[in-house]
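ARCHIVE CARD
CATEGORY: sequence design from structure
SOURCE FIELD: tokenized fold
FIELD CONTENT:
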């Protein structure tokens, strides 16, 4: 409190200083813009006989020291730069946010080969690099995959994922079963990237390759009217993850199609707060 005996000009200065201190210590509110420090997060991976350059960016917030972090593998944004520019609301939660472009998209080298092994290796490598950063708490690391990115993240769960919280949005989790009922357009998209042999489709199927035990938290987001990725596959994934010991939350949006848009923000925020940010 300002003393009444202080001259008016000193009282004004003291009030101004107090306001500055309060602003510096104010915790960010979800949804508000924060001044994130955007840095390159690019790296190389090897898969088979190929070497792939992966485009990535990381948006850093908060004071010096280790902070919780989330990796976004999101083909909706098209590339890592657009992804990181649209992730300020996650920074406002106090998260370090990294985005990568899938092989064959953005500035990442290709070919993409429809979520081939190189995409899975890229996810694994990105998480490992994040876990070893001095500004990231390796014990509070998450990953969010959407569409094809959900497939890549799901396939990465058969190894040491380095992440304790996983978000899977609008993914296809059994390509072998999908192929017979897929639309002509969907089949042409796959044919453009890889020959859809049984082996290739199985290699890109999450459900047959889940490990026997999973000690992590998973949030599944899916639209009931998704005409590209069957909701039944998401429900089967939910069941099998629970049988393997994972903590699972699932939201099936009654009015949702393949692209769920901003309707997922609420469940994602609550999940990250409870399963990643609040955990120590």
């Amino acid at each position: 409190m300002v003393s009444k005996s202080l001259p008016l000009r000193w009282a004004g200065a003291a009030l101004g200083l107090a306001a500055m201190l309060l602003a510096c210590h104010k915790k960010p509110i979800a949804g508000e813009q924060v001044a994130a420090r955007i840095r390159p997060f690019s790296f190389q991976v090897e898969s088979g006989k190929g070497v792939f350059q992966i485009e990535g960016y990381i948006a850093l917030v908060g004071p010096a020291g280790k902070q919780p972090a989330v990796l976004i593998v999101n083909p909706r944004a098209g590339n890592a730069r657009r992804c990181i520019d649209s992730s300020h609301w996650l920074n406002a939660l106090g998260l370090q946010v990294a985005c990568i472009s899938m092989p064959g998209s953005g500035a990442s080298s290709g070919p993409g080969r429809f979520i081939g092994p190189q995409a899975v290796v890229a996810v694994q490598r990105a998480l490992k690099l994040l876990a070893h950063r001095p500004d990231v708490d390796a014990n509070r690391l998450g990953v969010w995959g959407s569409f094809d990115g959900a497939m890549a993240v799901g396939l990465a769960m058969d190894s040491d994922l380095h992440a304790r919280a996983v978000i899977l949005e609008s993914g296809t989790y059994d390509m072998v079963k999908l192929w017979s009922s897929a639309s002509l357009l969907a089949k042409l998209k796959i044919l453009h990237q890889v020959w859809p042999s049984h082996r290739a489709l199985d290699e890109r199927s999450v459900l047959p390759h889940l490990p026997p035990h999973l000690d992590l938290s998973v949030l599944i987001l899916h639209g009931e009217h998704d005409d590209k990725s069957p909701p039944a596959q998401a429900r089967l994934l939910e069941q099998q993850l629970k049988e393997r010991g994972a903590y699972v939350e699932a939201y099936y949006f009654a009015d949702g199609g393949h692209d769920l848009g901003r309707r997922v923000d609420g469940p994602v925020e609550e999940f990250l707060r409870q399963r990643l940010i609040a955990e120590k």
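CARD ANNOTATION: The longest strand covers residues 136-146. Residues 1-31 have pLDDT under 50 and may be disordered.
SHELF: design records, drawer C
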